[in-house]
Design goal:
The chain has about 130 residues and is mostly beta strands. It is built from 1 helix and 8 strands, in the order αββββββββ. The strands form 2 sheets. It has a 4-stranded antiparallel β-sheet with strand order 1-2-3-4, with no helix packed on it. The protein has a 4-stranded antiparallel β-sheet with strand order 5-6-7-8, with no helix packed on it. A hairpin with a 7-residue loop joins strand 2 and strand 3. About 25% of the residues are buried.
Length: about 130
C-alpha cells in the first residue's frame, strides 16, 4: 500500500516556481542588404524586396538619389556578400526597372520595365552571370 502511495505522489504537479521556464524563441537577426558595394550607406532608397527560398539571394529595387537616374533591380548574394545590378534593360534605357520577384531556387528573377510595362526574366547561369530572356 505504501508503494502505491509513493507512486501517486510521484505524479504530483510541482508549484509554478519549480516548473521549467517556458521556451522563448530566439530573436532573429536583422541583416541590411541594400547598402553600397563597400557596405556604406546606399545612395538611394530601396524597396520591393524578394527573397529566394533558401534565403541566399535577395532581389530589390534600387532607387537612385538623383531623379533623372532610373530605378534598377539588384540581387544580393548573402553567402558571398556580393551584389549586382541585373536590370539594365536596353542599352539606351532611362526607364525604371521595378518590382523584382526571385524564384525559390534563386535561379530566375522577373521584374517590370515601368516605361513599357514589359516583364523581363533573367536566368542565373552561374553565380552572378545573368542572361535576359
Amino acid at each position: 500500500m505504501s508503494a502505491l502511495l509513493v507512486a501517486a505522489l510521484g505524479t504530483t504537479v510541482l508549484p509554478a516556481t519549480a516548473q521549467a521556464a517556458p521556451h522563448r524563441p530566439a530573436v532573429p537577426e536583422a541583416e541590411r542588404v541594400s547598402t553600397a558595394a563597400d557596405g556604406a550607406e546606399a545612395d538611394g532608397a530601396s524597396g520591393a524586396a524578394s527573397v529566394s527560398g533558401g534565403g541566399r539571394y535577395v532581389a530589390y529595387d534600387l532607387q537612385p538619389q538623383h531623379p533623372s537616374d532610373p530605378s534598377r533591380v539588384e540581387v544580393y548574394d548573402r553567402e558571398t556578400g556580393t551584389r549586382e545590378v541585373i536590370s539594365d534593360g536596353p542599352p539606351d534605357s532611362a526607364r525604371d526597372m521595378v518590382d523584382p520577384s526571385i524564384s525559390a531556387d534563386g535561379r530566375h528573377v522577373a521584374y517590370e520595365d515601368k516605361g513599357t510595362g514589359q516583364v523581363w526574366l533573367l536566368v542565373l547561369r552561374d553565380v552572378f552571370k545573368w542572361t535576359a530572356r
